[in-house]
Amino acid sequence: MPHTVVGIVGSYRKHGTIDTAVSAVLKAAAENGATTQKIYLQDHTIEFCTNCRHCLQVPDRGECPLKDDMAALLDQIEAADALVLGAPVNFGNVNALTRKFLERTVCYGYWPWETKAPGMDRKPTKTAVLITSSAAPGLLARWLTGAMKALKDLARMLGAKPIGTLWLGMIDPKDSGLSQRQQRQVKQLGRKLAIA
After folding, report:
1. Closest CA to 118 of 59, 48, 159
2. Are 7 and 86 spatial neighbours (Cβ–Cβ below 8 Å)?
3. How far apart (Å, rounded) are the C-alpha atoms in residues 85 and 76?
4. How far is it, in rounded angstroms, from Cα 147 to Cα 51?
5. Which of 187, 135, 196 is nearest to 31 (CA)?
6. What is the rounded CA–CA span in Å between residue 125 and residue 158?
7. Which among 35, 106, 147, 178 could bridge 132 via Cys, Cβ 3.0 to 4.6 Å?
């Protein structure tokens, strides 16, 4: 049975750099036998987490009292074998849209009222590729921003183990194309996801 790979685009720009890179990884995964789907976070209603802790009272995925698109998105993600998580750097970290989504994945934690600290004992059952982009050079931005750590946190909350990363530095908002080197990278990453 072929792998299902779901790409999550946290960028505000459709057909921008992040969308282009996520799409290229999905295309490479499909060329290696995977079934692929793509989610644009901006197309869904995702409310802000209010830190009510209602969802943290059970050891599995808890139910959030907010009624929006989050539960349906998590159902789709849970059905996948692999993920491509893409978000740009805005103000030193992933953008607010992706951060809002990340905060809502707290439902996979466990923090009963009677305990003093939260717990998380989720073993990864999926693989993931993490993609971010910045106006700064990639090597410099890796050290100066928290974007890749945020994407690693998101992968962990979604039950995925990263098997590859891609940092697209010095991007030009008017040109979302990938260099030949980056095209080779996304093909390798997509193949890894399809066969992992």
Report:
1. 59
2. yes
3. 14
4. 22
5. 187
6. 9
7. 147
Using alpha carbons, select from 46, 83, 66 the residue that is nearest to residue 158.
Answer: 83
pLDDT tens by residue, the chain, 196 residues: 568 999 999 999 999 999 999 999 999 999 999 999 999 999 999 999 999 999 999 988 999 999 999 999 999 999 999 999 999 999 999 999 999 999 999 999 999 998 888 877 778 999 999 999 998 777 677 778 999 999 999 999 999 999 999 999 888 877 888 999 999 999 999 999 998 7
Tell which residue, 144, 128, 96, 139, has the closest CA to residue 196. 128
In the numeric block, which tokens belong to residue 101?
């989504």
Closest CA to 134 of 125, 126, 144: 144
- Say how far apart CA 178 and CA 74 lie, in whole Å: 30
Closest of 121, 122, 117, 43 to residue 78, by C-alpha:
122
Q: Give, in order, the Cα–Cα distances in Å from 181 to each of 47, 150, 166, 189, 191.
A: 38, 25, 11, 12, 16
Tell me the two tokens of residue 52: 């009510």
